[in-house]
């Protein structure tokens, strides 16, 4: 279903997607995008394909540029200003200028942070429609110890300015309504692209950031519990990585012959690694709707999750095992998948059908178009 000409000719665009790190998609390092940026960029392209006039607000795109007819209009803002003197003020100005240049009827802003404060006040001042798009359950934790308390309250206040909250899961909707009882929240699934099926399975795979709430040590415990199985771990350290975590994981990989620790790699290589996985393992304490789940299921790879199961997708569709926090159950599930290729294939076939029915670009884009039709 393609849309005809916009009903609002006074604006340059029907909708602008603010996700500045999506600039990587349009430059030579497309393979290094994170999950939130991948989803926002897919959204911008899907809405363009549906006939809307779409702007994507991004950081400066490095040469050579990878832009074609399917690309939305790129509105390049300045690089992040937060490390300057009076950085928050400078960053707010940079966001306002970029949103002004995008000149859209509605603005979709992805993920929590100070940019939501700037975007919310811009939309209120200019009389535009503001849509907040969540990327994690943490987007609705307004008492996070790793964030400035005053900024969290300003962020929460600006969420109240949103014409709509577009959330990934019913759990996120529950959290949003608990904190913001009068908000207008709707659940729209994340995008999952079609992909080649699994090659059969050579190892379990863990891919994530090395930060505390991702609980990478639990994956090491899983490898210790199943010495006859193979485990591959791709972890990236960052500013939030606790002291000693990287060294602890490296020491475990040296000690355990069945655990292979690899450095971060381009996304295309990660997806090839996934095709060879027995299962994708997630040990996080909290998540939104992990891109890794969708990418695994699209390839017919089961998911084993220690703690998170967004809206019961794993359990309700029988496309892996959600262990409800039990390491014992996680170990049992991994052992079953390791020794039973037929079971892996059966789960994988269900997973591919589920992704096609619920998370295909066409199905998800139609939900977004319906939301924007209501607003503009």
Written description of the protein model:
By secondary structure, the chain is an alpha/beta fold. It has 2 domains: 13-190 and 361-375, Glycogen Phosphorylase B (Rossmann fold, 3-Layer(aba) Sandwich); 203-358, Glycogen Phosphorylase B (Rossmann fold). Helices cover 41% and strands 17% of the residues. The protein has helices spanning 35-49, 87-102, 114-126, 149-159, 170-179, 216-225, 245-255, 267-275, 291-298, 313-317, 327-339, 341-358, 361-375; strands spanning 13-18, 54-58, 73-76, 104-110, 129-133, 164-167, 185-187, 203-209, 231-236, 259-262, 277-282, 303-305, 320-322. The strands form 2 sheets. A 7-stranded parallel sheet has the order 3-2-1-4-5-6-7, sandwiched between helices. A 6-stranded parallel sheet has the order 10-9-8-11-12-13, sandwiched between helices. Helix 9 (291-298) crosses helix 12. The longest helix has 18 residues, at 341-358.
Classify the secondary structure makeup into a structural class: alpha/beta
Element pattern in H and E: EHEEHEHEHEHEEHEHEHEHEHEHHH
The percent range for helix content is 40-55%
For the secondary structure, the number of strands is 13
**CATH architecture grouping of the largest domain:** 3-Layer(aba) Sandwich
Which segments are poorly predicted (pLDDT under 50) over 5 or more consecutive residues?
1-6
* Total count of helical runs of at least 4 residues: 13
Sheet having the most strands:
7 strands, parallel
Q: How many individual domains?
A: 2
In the CATH scheme, what's the topology name of the largest domain? Answer: Rossmann fold
CATH class assignment of the largest domain: Alpha Beta
Radius of gyration: 21 Å
Mean pLDDT, to the nearest integer, reads 92
State the CATH superfamily name of the largest domain.
Answer: Glycogen Phosphorylase B
Question: Strand portion, in percent?
Answer: 15-25%
What order do the strands of the largest sheet run in, or round the barrel if closed? 3-2-1-4-5-6-7
- Assign an overall shape: globular
Q: Distance between termini? A: 17 Å
